[in-house]
Amino acid sequence: MADATSTASSRTRSARKPAAAKRTPKATKTAPRRARTTKAAAEPTPPARPRPIEQLQGAVRDVAYAQLGMAAGIVEEVGIRVIRARLEAPKRWVELVKRGEQVQREIDQAGQGIRRQITQRITDLDPRAGLSARISELRDVAALFARRPRAAS
Question: How confident is the model at residue 99 (pLDDT cuts 50, 70, 90)?
């Protein structure tokens, strides 16, 4: 009987105890959930290999752009040099005119000296140059002979 009472009392005890109330969790802030990523989506896919014709077209395009860039650089450099030349041209013109005048003076001075030398040489070679002086000497000598008494014959 004791077993019966203990069984009965355990039943009554269990009947008497109210069931434990479930606790509601405290309200806490949670981070928003990220979407799950699959392994395939997480790894970047390698770019598709370009076909040989596309590689060739890209290389040709790069060469054309390089040539265009080089030509543009040359045009810019020539433009800069033309502008500089236009700015310096009046100054250079004045310098050239002064140098030309100086050379002309030197030529004139050298020419005058050469003219004198040539004139002197021509005078020395010209038989008529000293003719008038010689004629006047001959006249003087002839006058002396004429004044001289003649000897009796």
Answer: very high
Average pLDDT over the chain, rounded to an integer: 78
To 5 degrees, how large is the angle CA 51–CA 56–CA 60? 150
Give mean pLDDT, residues 12-29.
Answer: 63
DSSP the chain: -HHHHHHHHHHHHHHHSPPPPPPPPPP---PPPPPP--HHHHSPPPPPPPPHHHHHHHHHHHHHHHHHHHHHHHHHHHHHHHHHHHHHHHHHHHHHHHHHHHHHHHHHHHHHHHHHHHHHHHHHH-TTTTHHHHHHHHHHHHHHHHHSPPPP-
Contact between 12 and 4 under an 8 Å Cβ cutoff? The reply is: no
Dist. CA 56–CA 63, nearest whole Å: 11
